[in-house]
TrEMBL record:
Record keywords: Membrane, Transmembrane, Transmembrane helix
Keyword Transmembrane helix: yes
Primary gene name: pgaD
Superkingdom: Bacteria
InterPro entries, sorted: PGA_PgaD
Segments traversing the membrane: 28-54, 74-96
Lineage: Bacteria, Pseudomonadati, Pseudomonadota, Gammaproteobacteria, Lysobacterales
Protein name, entry field: Poly-beta-1,6-N-acetyl-D-glucosamine biosynthesis protein PgaD
Length: 157
């Protein structure tokens, strides 16, 4: 009658540390995921095609490449050349900025906040603030007015 609640901590259906899965299994599931995303986008293809035709995609193709059923050689050569030039310009600009700002911290350094100030802002005792800063994973216990009154440190496995 009273179904046992599965223990979430040891529930085998939940993957907590994906790096502990075998590489082949992770890779296989990655390909399965990519295949289903591809199928999902394939289902959207008719709508995208219809919108493209409604917005003049076919007309643009005809005007650029097949005006009066002839291929314009200037456009066929000029568009890829412009694409390559724009790409090279963008990459050059990005590399210039990467070299210009490499190794420079552009942010102003911030002063550390004291434990007393943290305790005051949280409405907690300085001892509790010290415990909170020393713990890696903790559960914070609050009173009815949402002020911290204690904590329980969690073990990480």
């Amino acid at each position: 009658m009273n179904a046992a609640k599965p223990n979430r901590r040891y529930d085998s259906r939940l993957i907590r540390k994906t790096r502990q899965q075998p590489r082949l299994q992770r890779t296989a599931w990655g390909f399965v995921t990519i295949a289903f995303w591809g199928f999902y986008f394939y289902l959207w293809a008719p709508l995208i095609t219809a919108l493209s035709w409604l917005l003049g995609g076919r007309l643009a193709f005809l005007q650029l490449y097949e005006y009066k059923q002839k291929v314009d050689p200037f456009i066929v050569i000029a568009l890829p050349v412009m694409l390559v030039c724009c790409s090279l310009l963008l990459i050059t600009w990005a590399e210039y900025n990467r070299m210009r700002f490499a190794g420079k911290d552009r942010r102003n350094p911030r002063q550390d906040v004291s434990l007393e100030e943290i305790a005051h802002n949280l409405g907690a005792t300085p001892a509790l603030a010290q415990q909170l800063s020393a713990g890696k994973s903790v559960t914070l216990h609050m009173d009815d007015h949402a002020r911290p009154i204690g904590l329980t440190e969690q073990r990480l496995e």
